[in-house]
Every structure is written in C-alpha cells, then in structure tokens.
C-alpha cells in the first residue's frame, strides 16, 4: 500500500506564524492604548463629558458629583487627597520598556528564524 506523506508544519513555519501573531496583536493594541478621551461640553445643560472610543461618559468632579453647573453638592465629605502614586507615574515607563523588550525579543527570534530558513535552503 502506498502511503502519501501529509505535509507537516515545520518548526520554522510555526515560529514564523507565532511571530506574525505577536506582531499583529501588538499592532492592533497600539491605537487602542494611545487613544485618550477628549472632553466635550453639552451646550444645553452645561455638563462636561469624556468622549472616547466607547461613547460618552459623564465627567465627574473630585467629590464624585457630575461636572454640571446645577449639580447638587456631594452628600459626603470630599475624599482626602492622596499623594501621587509612584506606581501610576512609572506605569507608562514600564509599559514602554516592556514593549521595547518584546520587540527586541521578536527581532532576535525573526533573525534566528531567517538563519534557520537559510540553512535549510542550502
């Protein structure tokens, strides 16, 4: 009986597909991460809203009440202002550093894959 060998994905093509999936995920996530909400004021009510990718969100004051001229004052005392978080300040730096490392790792993997393909072609 004559067996026909089915084509199996090689390790190099699997690595290439994985690298392409990672690049596509990073490319798709970049615009969403870069989008910041824009403030918008309703002329009829005078209330402020934040306009983002998901629609309008009421902008709130520090005490939690809507940012509108006729909004009643908060029923509770305003929260005590917290010191700026060191975690939040370093978040953008960490995210940028992690993204740079991921891109460098991807470049190394692509170079190794390119060399493996060249070796197989010889």
TrEMBL record:
Extract the ranges annotated as region (Disordered). Answer: 63-82
Signal peptide, first to last residue: 1-34
Q: Which UniProt keywords apply?
A: Signal
Q: What is this protein called?
A: Uncharacterized protein
Organism encoding this protein: Salinarimonas soli
